[in-house]
Amino acid sequence: MFKIRKENLNDLYAKISESMGLYIPIKKAGEVNYHVWGEGKEVSLETLKTVRSPKDAFFPQTENMMKFKTEGKNIDIIDVRDEKRPFVLFGVKACDYKAIEVLDKVFLMDPVDTYYKARRDAITIVTLACSKPEESCFCSVFGIDATAPCGDVTAWLDENYLYWQANTQKGEELTGKVSALFEKGGEEEVKSQQEQTKTILAKLPFATLDLSRFKPENLNELFNAPEWESLSEACLGCGTCTFVCPTCQCFDIRDFKTRDGVLRYRCWDSCMYSDFTLMAHGNSRTTQMQRYRQRFMHKLVYYPSQNDGLYSCVGCGRCVNKCPQRLNIVKVINTLGGKKND
Amino acid sequence: MTKQERIDNLLRLSGTDVKKCMKCGKCSGRCPAFNEMDIKPHQFVSLLAQGKIEILLGSDAIWNCLSCMACVERCPRGVAPAAVVEAVRDTVVRAQGKNGLKAEDIPQIVDEFIPQQLLVSAYRKYNK
Amino acid sequence: MQRIGVFICWCGSNIAATVDVKKVAETIKAEPGVVYSENYQYMCSENGQQLIKNAIKEHNLTAIVVGACSPRMHEATFRKAAEAAGLNPYMVEIANIREHCSWIHKDMDEATEKAVVLVRTAIAKVKLNAPLMSGESPVVKRALVIGGGIAGIQAALDIADAGFEVDIVEKNATIGGRMAQLDKTFPTLDCSACILTPKMVDCAQHEKIDILSYSEVEEVKGFVGNFNVKIRRKARYVDETKCTGCKICMEKCPSKKGLNDFNMGLNTRPAIYIPFAQAIPNVAVIDPEQCIKMKTGKCGICQKFCGVGAIDYTQKDEFIDRQYGAIVVATGFKPIALDNFNEYGYADNKDVITSLELERLMNAAGPSDGVLVRPSDGKHPKVITFIQCVGSRDTSGCGKPYCSKICCMYTAKHAMLIREKYPDTEVHVFYIDVRTPGKNYDEFYRRAAEQYGVDYIKGMVGKVYNVNGKLMVQGSNLIDNEQITIESDLVVLATAIEPEPSVRKIATLLTASIDTNNFLTESHAKLRPVESPTAGVYLAGVCQGPKDIPETVSQASACAAKVIGLLVKDKLKTNACVATPDEMMCNGCSQCANVCAYGAITYVEKEFRLGGGKTEVRRVVSVNPAVCQGCGACTVTCPSGAMDLKGFSSKQIMSEVEAICKM
Amino acid sequence: MRDVEQKMIERAAALLQNGEVARVVGWKKGEFYFDPAPAVFETVDELKDFVYNGFCGANLSKYLIKVSKNEGKTAIFMKPCDSYSFNQLVKEHRVDREKIYVIAVECQGKLDIEKIKANGVTAVTNVEENGDKVTVSSLYGETVLDKADVMLGKCLTCKGKTHQAKDEDIILHEMPAPANNRFDEVAKLEAMTEDERFAFWKEQLQKCIRCNACRNVCPACSCLKCVFDNPSSGVAAKANDDRFEEQLFHVIRAFHVSGRCTDCGECSRVCPQNIPLHLLNRKFIKDIDGFYGEYQAGETAEGKTPLTSYKEEDLEVSDVFKGEGK
Amino acid sequence: MQDVTTGNKEFKPNIVAFCCNWCSYAGADLAGSSRLTYPANVKIIRVPCSCRVNPMFVLKAFQQGADGVILCGCHPGDCHYVTGNYYTRRRMALLFSFLNYMGIEKERTRVEWVSAAEGAKFSAVMNDFVKTVTELGENKRLTDLRVKEGK
Lengths: 342, 128, 663, 326, 151
Fold this sequence. Notes:
The structure holds five protein chains of five kinds. By secondary structure, chain B is mainly alpha-helical. Chain B is built from nine helices and no strands. Chain B has a single domain, classed as Alpha-helical ferredoxin (Fumarate Reductase Iron-sulfur Protein, Chain B, domain 2), CATH 1.10.1060. Chain B is globular, with a radius of gyration of 14 Å. By secondary structure, chain C is of the alpha/beta class. Helices cover 28% and strands 25% of the residues of chain C. In chain C, strand 32 (601-611) and strand 33 form a beta hairpin. Chain C is elongated and about 95 Å long. Chain D folds into three domains: 2-109 and 160-170, no CATH class; 113-150, no CATH class; 184-319, no CATH class. Chain D has eleven helices and eight strands. A five-stranded mixed sheet of chain D has the order 2-1-3-4-8. Classes of the chains: A alpha+beta, B mainly alpha, C alpha/beta, D alpha/beta, E alpha/beta. The interface between A and C is small, with 8 and 9 residues.
């Protein structure tokens, strides 16, 4: 294990940036999101939850796919993909790291999404353990250890140091590039931080959420539960929950008319939108209740039933914090799953 | 101050739009002090509009206007001839370096035939 | 996909000298959708049009673009040509490569390049064109004239003479209007009654004219060609069909103290009355406020004396519904109230009168039988002073900002008549300007001053005050730069005129717009001066703006011509480029109706299927294509984009924008 | 506030019980004190979850579009600011006034949990309101904050404590005076140079994730189908693919609600990226006031909006930038 | 994305002009028949009335790379459709003020009233507008970079 003083982190970022891109939580206009690092940027590793999850590092909100160039009556199809430069995704929390596993299952299974894969392969992930979880966190419910995330490198942060441990070949390579900045040690500090954090994690209000009913065999019963009506009645049908969610993976493919043709791109879509999966005959889900149900059934029942029980919620709590009308997956779990203490 | 600035100053002081005058003469038709004024109310508006301010600044009418505002009240175009008279008077008073008028100076400026109303209004208007 | 043909015109050398027309036609061939491209010396010529027609047929063109002069020149020509070849005329777009290109640019390359862009832009638009059809709506062959003054009478006569039914709705008991109150008319000084009453009689006798006197318009629905109007026939308590106009009731009526409106309140009339001798219809009316029988239940004298049993104290207001193809508004004017002009002492002095009152005083049928006397003491006035512009040209808020237009002339008339009839009378006129444009008008005014010795004083009156029964008129004489006071016996105020106040209600009923002075707005100040912006509604007389009798009559006849032009049609072709709403997107917010100047937008409750067997009733917009003029104001007001404009759709304009920016 | 809440529950229960209304729109308690959600109550029994506290900032009026389509009358609790939106919805025929029973409730200013957390308080488990103080309990300890520091942005520029529509009211305590400072922030931006303003909005709008929360919460955005969702509108767009998309979306949205926006502040409240969206709408309001005379949308349920009316002597477009301080 | 240096002498702005059919389009026709020149980079789109111009069209033009947008209509009070341009005036006053508030150069947008008789005014307005926008340089703030990719 290595460590580096907090005040020297800028050197670390600079060193990484010499040979790779660095994607890291940066505060801009008051909000912390992942951005490409540059000198003078305000890095905020302390921020527990970036507004957007790091998923856009390999699944950006919009991504150009191809271009149709027209000249007179000719049309040429142009591949607009460029060589992906290797880069480091720095500061990924345990929940968000787990979310990448969820996304991988979608995009990397056959047929492989080559756009996603190109970015995924180019990334080295440096995770960061949580030390100050908050009330909306419930990753432990999904078996995630917030104090020991995986990734190519795992990092811990306390008042004085950032601790660094490589886990994979990629991680070792990255470590090699920056090791000159490191000193050895930190095992003790990390251990004590982990223990301290675990006591908090156990006390979190959502630590006791009960997922036991969310099983494929209960699909029909859950689908037809009358509670969906009241759960969803305040839903605005905005896409906030889906766009801040680290595991939401739906996208739409659209064309944009440029000066000399058409640019085809894909962009995030939200199952909360009324035009989501709109087909020629109309929409398969006509009410907001149906759309609302779809989102949570997908997270808690459909996805796990196809992926060996892996939920596609990781308990990051972003939707809990960000839903404009304070609806969220926790209310769904509590209403349909039944509280443990009840 | 250039002449134009002085004209502008008078226009600003009067706060009235002399271009609105349609030259009907109703102000002068109503003026109770008409015969005491060497320059008539409608001429105040007209001369200022033409920029002939020397005539106005040299007129005696500014001391004889009763400030009764009948001309203002009656003007069909919303022009205020009395405000022009007042603006000219203020300009003259200021140019003389006076910031007001003492009661004892009044007899030298106004003649004995002036109506009582004018004397009262004189205190009002000279007491800047 | 459209099959587009492009036709580039040389316009002789007008275009070809600066734009390489062959190159344009050649370049455009490569545009997607273009299957045919041609250039020709004069596209608008017979041969040029034939070329287009042939190409449409040979190449199965679905749309064409003509690169030529302004569409304001020949769009109609090319549309007709296209139609002749079996193409919908709205599948034609014009690229203006003459006025907007060849004529303003000198450099050939530059102009050619621009021409290509303009043609491409037209192609971009025409690709989204859809065949448009003008709608048709039937025309009810009957006209309504609101107001029975000289304007209404003239319009009604002209329309009726052309063979169409006309109803005149007049709110008073008789037609005739203001003109009936006048003594003589300028500039010829013929007697007003002598020229008006024959026309009134013509109206009454015309088989195509129905006079609905003592009636008011209550409700107007529908649109051009098809108005549904509800008319209130006010109870006159006299059976119109029975009354012979013998006037015995007037004689016998014991309640004689009612103010005579017709004589401007200068004398009185009985509770049952016929407004004046030549009234049409010559039928009595009872003033229920004044009638003793109606107030107390006792009396009934008129009923007793009426030989034909026409009196009916129980009569009620009736409502009738009629259909009209066109409506003429001719509601006329009234003199303004003089409450804001205390300086002239109108309220305090009987001998300060308005010009209209003077008309009655000088009229042989008036309260003084045509002898000019002072209302106060019945003596003949020796000094008469006229004051002009009382309440006109007043922006102070007391009066009206506009010139009432008729006062200069009628004052000259009055002055002249008085001097002629009573040469011993001194006549003064205080004026600001004397305005006499018009045939023989200035000559008329000069005659008053030169031949009749009327004293015109340039200046305005400051105040009128009474000293021992003499009216002291104090004003300025600007020419002599003096203030003068004229001791007068009679003061006549040339009072400003304003539209008859009931016009407000009528404007609302007709959705006709009205200006800040309550004058009805014409469709175009210069080019459509008698049409209201509401299709099928026409304006005659002072309701549209101050005017004298000749002008009023001309405007009334112009209205009639327009109405006749409308009524001769069996069906109206409606504008094809009208607003078109998408009901599925309309949320019924009413924003669009708020900006429609024509009242073409209404709302309906409509049932929509939601799927799953469910339905929903929603309030949605409905555009009447017969009324919509196609300005597009509503389209921008609609946030959801539910409203679009045929022929200028949002998509079309946006693709034009894209095409222009593509260069 | 407990007494107000109690009174509200009593009234709601009475109205439901005697059949005067078929449902009541209010707020329902969440997992914590600070996350109540809008809800519709149809039975007295459901009212056990009814809550009204400092975190009931949501403007409920827009829900009426949907809810009032159902059979029977709907009662709704409204804060003063919500009542403007309600009037505007009535004016635009989106809600049938006859079918609504408005209960005006007092508002002492609402709280923003994000602002509380921004004070370094995390893992919040409870919040208590004590007058102008707020006591926050968390797993890491207890903190006392000034209420003024943690109020919702929209409450800091409160435009009035008068309900513009009501059938009855539940006002038990005096409400604070309006702030009268609505346009300060706009004026500050106006005072900047073009470049500074551009930089400001560029940075702010780059955060936008096009979640549409601002649009979907907005009571003025009540179109059946938004132009941005309608492929045939020519401006349909789904994502923040380019800086222009954000500008287009926000400019058009602000324009579409101009003259109709009541400045309820919901857009900024719900923005997950905390973009000060209200400053866009408020610029239109300020300009309308300045150019055409003061106008407050939603003050009445009748009349034309400034963009659907005109005066002949209106300001010329060329004079827009000539005035001082514009 | 290509960066075109502003102030480049070769820079020719692309100007979209919306003209109402009854006054300004006719005014432009008159400018043409009077041979009053103005630069070729002004392209006119005919609309029935200036009130047909949706702010979305203006933004669309900028998105697609226009450097300036000008609306021309009948003089207030002369609108063929009676009141159309009064609405235009309010809409555009608010829109342009708003765009400037967002940092868009105010010189890029303009509304002018040009009657059918004012061919000379049309030409003068266009010359002046082109000059102003040329001095301002390329529209970068309100353009969609994707559009220009192919340039």
